[in-house]
Amino acid sequence: MVTDYTPMFMNHLGQVIIEDWVTGFMTGFSLAPDAWMPIVLSPTRHKLRPILASNELGRSLLPELSPTDLSNIQDCAHNTIGAAVVELHKATRKLRRAPKPARPPKPKRRRQ
Questions:
Q1: Residue 85's CB: how many other CB atoms inside 10 A?
Q2: Which of 10, 31, 42, 56 could bridge 17 with an S-S bond, Cβ 3.0-4.6 Å?
Q3: Percentage of the chain surpassing pLDDT 70?
Q4: Separation between Cα atoms, residue 33 and residue 3, nearest integer Å
Q5: Strand partners, 15
């Protein structure tokens, strides 16, 4: 079980740069939005606030937060993204363990 995660962020002149990491995360999100919808529509979404508040697409998924709230979350996101990823992992554990629906058998090809 994952209990700790430390994302690798870039640093420049003492500034932590999270934009590239968050862009990568959100790119993965955009590749399978249907898979993410159960998470986005659940209370787990709030655990992802540090990630979502740090990206334009993500901010659109937090309409209940003011621009000031989003900015405050983003300002400390470099310290809280690791915990958010761990919480996401915990929250989706049941989804990963759920049995996958059986695939229907492939139709047999007729020989001609």
A1: 20
A2: 10
A3: 86
A4: 26
A5: 12
